[in-house]
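Our platform keeps sequence and structure together, in a single record for each protein. Such a record has a labelled line for the sequence and another for the backbone structure tokens. Nothing more is needed to write down the fold, since each code stands for a local backbone conformation. For reference, a complete record is included directly beneath this paragraph:
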Amino acid sequence: MSTSPSLVIVGAGPRGTGFLERLAANLPELYGDEPLDVHLVDPHPPGPGRIWRTAQSPLLWMNSQAEDVTMFTDESVDLEGPVRPGPTLAEWAGIDGRTFPTRPQQGAYLRWVYERARTALPATVTVHEHRTTALRISGPRDGRQRVWLEGSAVPLLADLVVLTVGHLDAEPDPEQRRLAGFAERHGLVHLPPDFTADTDLTALPAGEPVLVRGFGLAFVDLMVLLTEGRGGRYEGEGDELVYVPSGKEPVLHVGSRRGVPYHSKIGYVLDGERPPLPRFFGTEQTDALLRRTGSIDFRRDVWPLIDKELGWAHYHRLFSTHPERTALAWSDFEKAYEEAPPRGAELAALVAAAVPDPADRLDLDALDHPLDGIRYDSAEALQEGLRDYITQDVTRRHDPAHSSDAAVFAGLLSVYGQLLRLGKRLDPGGWWHGFFSYLASGPPGPRLRQLLALSRAGVVRFLGPQVTVEADEDRGLFRAGSAALPGEWTEARALVEARIPDPTLELSGSPLLRALYEEGTRATAGGLLVVDPVDGRILEHDGRPHPRRFALGPHTTARTGSAFTRPRTGGVAFGQNDVTARTALAFLHDRECRLPAPLSA
């Protein structure tokens, strides 16, 4: 068995690949030409991993345009290590940068990035790929770790372990277990939260109603696979798009808390003057929060700062680019905005006086509850109302006259960077991450036009907001109702939970993460793995960073807001990868960690 220093990376998808790229970039400076064993543990192909594997339907698209996807650092990223530029997906694939690539195309790009990172490692580094699952980690704080693998009685010895496991399955929570039991008793279909591309949809029969709870990106995948995926097709384009059914589609009755799909991707380039960020939620404000001795509450202490920061981005863009739609000099507005308390009557009055058209004002509460208080006389009126809403959203998000929306997107990215600094002191919770995705990570405009066509064809029916789902024991059916149609219910023999599982340690589908949770590794109330926001070291139950265990990705308190990085936007995930890689290499360079420990469980 090799006595060389050993690094085990659990998870070889995009995050593990990004970490490997930073390891290769920093290795000459911090480690030299000494031997090193790097073990990659993942049952799925290195590079694309599970989510972006090339063996999936080409009907499924990325949620980003090809020119907005890169796996490489540039001068905008805050790095101690060297910048190693590389092509965007569009440049690598030779495709139109404004197109939305298929997921197999992205998988091929990620595989190439992985191979390039591996090739960049010197000959003294040996990479071992283990196509299996990591079960648990054992070992003393001050000694080599043991990573136990499925199908092997002998663990991998590791001087350091880095968890980059990405998005994972989850065990069902009590509500899902209750619904699954109901479905089993009555011979119904219940599909719990899952990655839609991996879900067996054959149990959903043609022509039958299906209740769908969730209106985000998992729903979009479901919509595609149950329509085009079953032989349907589209004719025409734009507002004239028509769906021609194959006859194999079920009828999807979809609703959610908001009752509307995520906002369309912005369909133009933000040119001209950009808002200077951060302004009201930056280092000064996060430092002040970190100096507090008490707890930090997201809604009380942080959300007002975020609200004011996003408003700043919005109004800076509006005044600089569309001054004819304002009624106050920018200098006067800027001074008054700066002095006004966040989310108060003074700020609201200032905005109302300075921005005459309500459509030009930013109201985050209204955005989060777009259908609150709206009631419809009939189900058909609800269908028409939702089609009008979606049409207006697609139109606005493709109209540069509303480029303040794109400025808010830039503000959201800035905000995420500051939330990462709060790290172990604050878990924003599921609402914040959902709200971010709703505003900033919605579907491509063409997908929403397809949704409208499916609605007109009767293949998709809208349930509305504040959807409740009941298990009717007497009738042996699922039924769903909405605040928009009080007293009316839709019944079905099938229920699909169209969302990905929450990244909680307690219910994680990863036996390794569950083992860490059961051993007392520190977790937030929302179930995230608590890590040091500086270098990603895992915090133990007593708050101490583990010297030999790191974690990066969506299962941690340092998770970033998007799956991939746009070029020249700072690349927070790249910066995290760089710091963790440099910390790991500096540790491995210490001769003390090279002394082999005796094998024991």
